[in-house]
């Protein structure tokens, strides 16, 4: 993960870096955290009251572009990045109870050593992570990859890289596939 030791270097819109420690948020702030993921583009990024978005991808250029498109679309959630599924899962396992779980995890499916499919399967095996939406962000438009992602309980499948406005619409409203978390089957068939 690119954020370490509880301290984060956060860049405001003006480009000024400041250190933040999310452990210092007051109890009132943590109780009043919004559940949504969209904010006005006039606010500073990130809004630490919002739940985080995770990006799992081994390519730094792809991570940069996805983060840029999210910000350009007005998504103000904190963003944490991971180079591998193992790194993301370790972070999820050791996430303190007082920290919010990610609202959404974007994962590539083609990475060395492990795939995004493995990450998706492991997240769907854990009942405490049922509320986490996982979306594939891949260059693959192969029908077998989409089928496998659906079988594993993916909430969305995007081809790299949608424009910022469409990405923001996806993050805030879906379309989310109606997939049961651990049954690995569609609860509502997809139709045109």
What does this protein look like?
There is one protein chain. With 192 residues, this protein is an alpha/beta fold. It has helices at residues 27-31, 60-72, 85-93, 116-125, 143-152, 164-173, and strands at 7-11, 17-21, 53-56, 79-82, 104-107, 133-138, 156-159. The protein has a five-stranded parallel sheet, sandwiched between helices. Strand 3, helix 2 (60-72) and strand 4 (79-82) form a beta-alpha-beta unit. The protein is globular, with a radius of gyration of 16 Å. The protein starts with 6 loop residues before the first strand and ends in a 19-residue tail after the last helix. 26% of the residues are buried.
Number of discrete helical segments = 6
Structural class: alpha/beta
Total domains, how many? 1
How much of the polypeptide forms β-strand, as a percent range?
Answer: 15-25%
| Mean residue pLDDT | 75
How many β-strand runs? 7
The proportion of residues forming helix, as a percent range, comes to 25-40%
CATH architecture: 3-Layer(aba) Sandwich
- Flag low-confidence runs: 1-42, 179-192
Series of H and E elements: EEHEHEHEHEHEH
CATH uppermost class: Alpha Beta
Beginning-to-end CA distance, first to last residue: 38 Å
Task: Tell the overall outline.
Answer: globular
């Amino acid at each position: 993960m690119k954020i370490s030791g509880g301290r984060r270097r956060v860049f405001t819109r003006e480009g000024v870096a400041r250190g933040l420690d999310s452990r210092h948020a007051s109890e009132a702030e943590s109780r009043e955290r919004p559940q949504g993921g969209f904010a006005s583009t006039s606010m500073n990024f990130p809004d630490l009251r919002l739940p985080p978005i995770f990006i799992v991808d081994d390519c730094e250029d792809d991570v940069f572009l996805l983060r840029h498109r999210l910000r350009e679309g007005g998504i103000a959630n904190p963003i944490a990045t991971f180079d591998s599924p193992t790194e993301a899962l370790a972070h999820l396992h050791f996430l303190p109870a007082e920290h919010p779980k990610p609202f959404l995890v974007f994962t590539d499916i083609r990475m060395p050593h492990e795939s995004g499919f493995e990450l998706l399967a492991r997240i769907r095996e854990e009942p405490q992570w049922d509320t986490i939406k996982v979306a594939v962000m891949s260059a693959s438009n192969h029908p077998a990859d989409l089928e496998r992602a659906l079988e594993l309980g993916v909430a969305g499948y995007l081809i790299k890289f949608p424009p910022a406005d469409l990405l923001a619409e996806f993050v805030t409203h879906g379309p989310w596939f109606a997939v049961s978390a651990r049954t690995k089957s569609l609860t509502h068939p997809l139709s045109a």
